Amino acid sequence: MEHSNTGCCCPDQDRKAYICDCCVGPMENVLRQLVGRTVSIGTIDNTNGQYNNAVINSVNDFIVTFRQGSAVIALPICLVVGVQAPEVQTATLMPAPVGGRGGECDCCERPVREFFDEITEADVDVLGPAFNNLQNTIILETGEGIIKVRDNNRFIALSLCKVSEIKNFS
User: Fold this and answer.
1) Would you say residue 99 lies in a domain?
2) Which of 113, 146, 147, 128 is nearest to 41 (CA)?
3) Number of folded domains in the chain?
4) CA distance 80 to 82
């Protein structure tokens, strides 16, 4: 089954098409650029949502597979909060869409992205344990569904749909 960056998870209002939240396709885009790299991946799972020293094997059909030690793990990208690796600094983000897309895109992703566009530094909280409570985070770039930040010397791509709090911003 072939999917576009906008097709997979939830039925639209007419139940004719299936569309992911606005951040899944953009996160898949970032993860594809990190295949073969050692990364840390965070998910919304509060008990086991952090995977350090993971080597990404593949990104396909909204699933990322990686090796962590001797284990091979597959994760649905719709549950990924963020990914950290030095290569995130040079990852190409998808451009923000011109005009509204409706639904969650207009009530969650767009306003959060536009808020980050106006600031340069903040404390950022996201869902799950991996990248929660980032302090004095430098905002590097925003694109559709993703924000790239620098937290100390760590480069992280975060899903805008998983941001739960922005504070102490300037």
Assistant:
1) yes
2) 128
3) 1
4) 6
